[in-house]
Amino acid sequence: MESSPPADAPPPRLELRGITKRFPGCLANDHVNLVLQGGEIHALLGENGAGKSTLVKMIYGVLHPDSGSLLWQGQEVRVPDPAGARRLGIGMVFQHFSLFDTLTVTENIALGLDNPGPMAALANRIRTVSERYGLALDPDRHVFHLSVGERQRVEIVRCLLQDPKLLIMDEPTSVLTPQEATKLFETLRRLAAEGCTILYISHKLEEIRALCSRATVLRGGRVVGACDPRQETARGLAEMMIGSELSTPERPPQGATGAARLSVRNLSTSSDNPFATNLKEVTFEVRAGEILGIAGVAGNGQAELMAALSGEALIADPAAVRIEGVPSGHLGPRARRALGLAFVPEERLGRGTVPELSLSDNALLSGYASETLVTGGMVRFAKARAYAETIIKGFNVVTHGHKAEARSLSGGNLQKFIIGREILQRPKLLIVGQPTWGVDAGAAAAIHQALIGLARSGAAVLVISQDLDELFVLSDRISVLFHGRLSDSRPTHETSVERIGLLMGGLFATPPDEDGEIARAL
Amino acid sequence: MSLIRLEPRGQASQAMVYLTPPLAVVLTLMSGFVLFLLLGFDPMKALHAFFIDPVSSRRGIGELIVKATPLTLCAIGLSIGFRANVWNIGAEGQLTMGAIVGGGLALAFYGHGGWWLLPLMVIGGAVGGMAWAAIPAYLRLRFNASEILTSLMLTYVALLLLNFLAHGPYRDPDGFAFPESRLFEADAVMPILWAGTRVHLGAAFALLAVVGGWVLIARTFIGFQIKVIGLTPAAAGYAGFDQKRIVWLALLLSGGLAGIAGMGEVAGPIGQITPNVSPGYGFTAIIVAFLGRLHPVGILLAALLMALSFIGGEAAQIAMGLPKAITGVFQGMLLFFLLASDVLIRYRVRFGARRAVA
Q1: End of a domain among A426, A448, A468?
Q2: Do the Cβ atoms of A352 and B235 come within 8 Å?
Q3: How far does A354 lie from chain B, in Å, by closest CA?
Q4: Angle between the N-to-C axes of helices B117-143 and B147-167, in degrees from 0 to 180, rounded to the nearest 10
């Protein structure tokens, strides 16, 4: 039914025409058009919730469009499922890996192939492909030994073994150190030079500017723009993405810091779970009036550190964690809150809030003690509602009121609510995990401003994040967590993204100012 | 690829959540109609004998309340546990232990009773049920053993213990070796609240449990903690709620209420210890708790409905010669329709394969 393209120009590798996808209560993609040429690295840009993931899941056959058509090299096709997509020559590397920890690299790859063939031959093919594209990988190693970057390589090699003509990468660098990301970009450029099209999804603007030759911007499920990212500034791209002008948080110069509000000495943990990362003699302190940032790739002990600091995991040695000088390793979350700790966990829904409960119930969740929302064992519901309204007003939470269920809020609004709930309790010490992960840029700026304001008013703030840009905006000092060990902290203005990046790769001992190729210290 | 799929609906309708129990009752009645028809009975007459005749006299309504009493007491306790993901399936055993301890006190002080004996028996019944429920609580917290299994298995231990006692130590010395205790003396019997019926003090306890259960769930901080633990255990850990304490509370409370229910049976309608104290009140209470949507008022209504299925089944056996299994059939249909409607208000059924393959 479609007219065939002129014979002299090759048809685009993939063309989407008027793709629409509706979920209950949400139009995820609204007449999206997208053209991908052979051999280009094309960025799909947009905030969380803009519809990027839905769109690529339809290309890969995980979801199916309600209307619109998909043309593969000029031919209209339907992609029934991921196996069908692979037959066409479409490969996808997901943000969250699907690997079995206890199997080897070869076994994992065999599971993902439609016809893996004999294991030994497959292992050889893996070696060939990984050498050719500079993806160092030992086929016989078990996955649980591998770093996150290596696990991603397993997923990429699995795709490359099928000679894809289109490779979709969903936020590939969110789990990588800057150096690992640079190596990944080399691989992607080589693939593109060989004619493979790469659809690159990200909201990290600098890397898109470095890597991609074209970009399509999605907002609210619609294509709102297309550009050559190399010609744009990061700020210009961000404003296209959020559709308004971006405000950057101000960080007034740090005043004199006060006493140590949180001091951690030789904190070590041990776990029965073989896949947990044990903390090894972690030592640091956070003083009144400052923000300490802890960087690191996920899985290097962040979850264990957060649990040990919040009191969700108890520490045998009470003196390993002191809050306001009081040994608190043996205290639970309730007792630590009484000492002045407030806490924003990484998981917003399901830890920081109860998804099914109203905002006023969720205000009660952590505010019950410091806001005296409970007297004589009875809940003071009117006071809890008023507290929720105060949070909603004070932190510009977009919602239809305190009765709204937590799960009905967008990620950014929910995070504003949680941060507001903790800050309004006037904590002496606030610990925040991933404050703006998956949060739109406007909300992120507001959250950053609130955290800086809290620190400047005399509280101690600890931020644990994987987002280096964020840590450089917020922190007065930065440390790095790697394999359960914490590096010494450095004042932010005396360090750089590159140096922190090397520390994130585990180079604690080597002087971090050497350039060039440095092997991973494992 | 299956031909029938369930697709989640965006949001379950709040009205339907409350409408499904009545809907399940209507569907049960309709199926009962068809069932009686197929069995060759006059369906209108059979349903009348099952559901209307039993409650058309004062005595009948009294019997309804007598049966609803232990169901309500057990179900209120169970519902509080279920809300906190504490799955006590052993209310029947806890009820039996309440009867053993409470009734044992009546026998121990036989002939020496006074006004103090009945309060002592109430406390004894509660303690008996709590002690039996404490075992699964300890096993879950110490060894992470599923309370579903331990509480259920302990039920059979309690039933065998009761059997042993009725045949041995508790047996009436003047009872010609029948496996029954003496009839309790007046000081050890629950006072009758409604003359001309068997409605006893236990009914007041049941109402008290309904009110207390509502206050606990809707107004207290403990109730809030139970709700959070049930919905999202990780958030409860984040907030610093002591989950062990809630497990203890849920099991001791449900055990204690079941124990009082058991004591009320032997000191009420039965009036002595026999090998069969309960026709399965503790198990039926699980259905009652869910039929009542784990809400105290809903539980009260559901208990009356399930009590009707007990006495209606008996009445239909006598009046129409229907088999004894008819009670179980009706209870089962009711639970089935309730669960099925629950699925349908959360999911929508789609027929056919996912999408035609190109």
Answers
A1: A426
A2: yes
A3: 6
A4: 140
Asked if B239 lies within 8 A of A77 by C-beta distance, the reply is no
Residue of A nearest to B353 (CA): A80
Contact A377 B228 (CB under 8 A): no
Top residue of A87, A379, A414 to mutate, by most chain B CBs within 10 Å, is: A379
Task: Tell me the C-alpha distance between B345 and B14, whole Å.
Answer: 10
What number of other Cβ atoms are within 10 A of residue B4's Cβ? Answer: 8
A143-201 confidence digits (pLDDT tens): 888 877 788 889 888 888 888 999 999 888 877 778 888 888 998 999 999 999 999 98
Strand spans (E) along B10-82: none
CATH architecture group of domain B42-321: Orthogonal Bundle (1.10)
Which B-chain residues 4-33 have CB contacts (< 8 A) with chain A?
A: 9-11
**Tally of domains in chain A:** 3
Q: Are residues A48 and A94 in the same domain?
A: yes
Q: Please give the helix or strand (H or E) that residue A27 lies within, else none.
A: strand A26-36
On whether the CB atoms of residues A339 and A328 are closer than 8 A, the answer is: yes
Residues of A in contact with B219 (CB under 8 A): 378-379
User: Are residues A231 and A291 located together in one domain of the fold?
Assistant: no
Q: What is the pLDDT of residues A444-464, one digit of tens each?
A: 888 999 999 999 999 999 999
Dist CA A451 CA A323 (whole Å): 19
Put simply, the answer to whether A351 touches B9 (Cβ < 8 Å) is: no
Question: What is the ipTM score, two decimals?
Answer: 0.82
Q: Which residue of A has its CA nearest to B357?
A: A80
Structure tokens at A273: 């779970």
Instruction: Chain B: give the shortest CA distance to residue A333, in Å.
Output: 5
Query: Do residue A365 and residue A323 come from a single domain?
Result: no
Non-local (6+) Cβ contacts of B195 within 8 A are none
- Bridge partners of residue A142, in order along the sequence: A104
- Listed by start position, the domains of chain B span 42-321
